[in-house]
Amino acid sequence: MADGLLLRMKILVLNSGSSSQKSALFELRTDSGYDPVPPLWEGKLQWDGEREELHLRNHSGQEIRRQEKAGVRRASVAAMLENLWNGETAALNSASEVGIVGHRIVHGGAKLAEPVRITPEVKREIEAVRAIAPLHNQAGLEGIELAEKLFPTVPQIAVFDTGFHRTLAPKAHVYPGPYSWYEQGIRRFGFHGINHEYCAHRALRMLKGDVATLKIISCHLGNGCSVCAIDGGKSIDTTMGFTPLEGLMMGTRSGSIDPGILVQLLRGDLWDQSRNPRDLARPEFVDKTLNHESGLLGISGLSSDMRDIVAAMRAGNDRAQLAFDIFIHRLTKEIGAMAVSLGGLDALVFTAGIGENSPEVRAAACEKLGFLGIQMDAVKNSSLKPDAEISATASKVRVLVIQAQEDWAIAREWVRLRA
Fold first, then answer.
1. Residue 272 has pLDDT above 70, yes or no
2. 165, 110 in Cβ contact below 8 A?
3. With bands split at pLDDT 50, 70 and 90, how would you rate the model's confidence at 101?
4. Active-site entry in 3, 161, 272, 279
């Protein structure tokens, strides 16, 4: 460490999403390793239409679960955080015990890649790319501003989901449009980097392999989905691009589609009779359609939640079956593409909400990937608790399920910033 001293710090992490606010409090030392430790306190506030759901838990086991009418987001988040030092789940005596506040920021743009202490200039850069990740960066900025009010003297750090992908080569990050696009900053950035990087480190320790030679495909499957090819601990290819809309089919996001469809929409040549044709040609409508009305929800007409899709599929719902089949088709196609980028494959990782909790998705994907030498153990797959291996003994590729630990990874960056 820079000062030669071992320091202990309480770090509050704010993970601000478009429809949720997650938070966790960790206590770390400057010699803390990479293996995650349980948080002292964690909270989650989720908005579903006109209602909000709160779940709080501390290290002693006290919990609070509450549903009520949705309030103003900032006030609701502030009330949630005050439970850190007040009420049944309190883990601190006062707000002054918080030493650092860390934030997950989805898009850092071209200028922000490494974790950084938040300054007015950093906030301006995050604001400058807000339109590229409209579901997330605004929420991240609001989290920063709230922390400034609740903890006015506490340093804040930003960790960027795009940062891990800074190692993409030009052949992977330059789009084949006019070169002037690239000169203006239009390029593949990639997302979910905080968790992809964590999973790479975790897989390395689970497999006891050599980081210099290990080839990993990490599948972050949640409401947002992306696949990342990791070679020697570095991201070399990924499915999300300039925005978090590209790539795989997701909960409400379309993923990659033919750009010609957008041209037809904006010309007004495609429309449905339930809508005003003029609305279909508005960029705001196209954005809403692709980000909020597509994916699992758009195809099934039922839900953006894979658990609901699987249940409806088993009950004989044809559109739920189609949504599931498209999801698996696009997932396995991208895994195959990432294997080509890597020139081989040692480990396949499933992580995040769907990746960790849907044995149906893992089984369907691995069945189609047998040509890569992947064999899954059905018993392990159906009964596991992350972190675990689900590949069969004869499998040429190790298949792992790793719990997403974004909050821990963000807190851990404090140690690297001090080094």
1. no
2. no
3. very high
4. 161
Q: How many CB atoms lie within 10 A of CB 275?
A: 11
State which fold the 205-402 domain adopts. Answer: Nucleotidyltransferase; domain 5 (3.30.420)
What is the token pair recorded at 377? 């153990």
The helix/strand/coil state of 157 is strand
Average pLDDT, the chain: 89
Peptide bond into 387 cis (omega under 30): yes
Neighbours of 325 (CB within 10 A): 13
Question: Is 161 known to be catalytic?
Answer: yes
Q: How far is CA 223 from the centre of its chain?
A: 8
Provide the terminal-to-terminal Cα distance of the chain, rounded to the nearest Å: 5
For 313, residues 6+ apart whose C-beta sits below 8 A from its C-beta are: 320, 321, 324
Smallest Cα–Cα separation from 31: which of 5, 67, 65? 5
Does the pLDDT at position 372 exceed 50? yes
CA–CA distance, 37 with 29 (Å, rounded to integer): 11
User: What does the CA dihedral 330, 386, 57, 32 come to, rounded to 10 degrees?
Assistant: -110
205-402 matches 8-160 in CATH topology: yes
- Answer yes or no: is pLDDT of 74 > 90: no
Placement of tokens 């908005």 in the chain: 47
pLDDT in tens, 235-257: 999 999 999 899 999 999 999 99
The neighbouring-strand residues paired with 14 are 23, 103
Task: Check residue 108 and report its DSSP letter.
Answer: -
CATH 3.30.420.40 fits 8-160, yes or no: yes
pLDDT at 369 over 90: yes
Is-contact 137 105, C-beta < 8 A? yes
Two structure tokens written together for 291? 């980000």
**Sequence ranges of the domains in the chain:** 8-160, 205-402
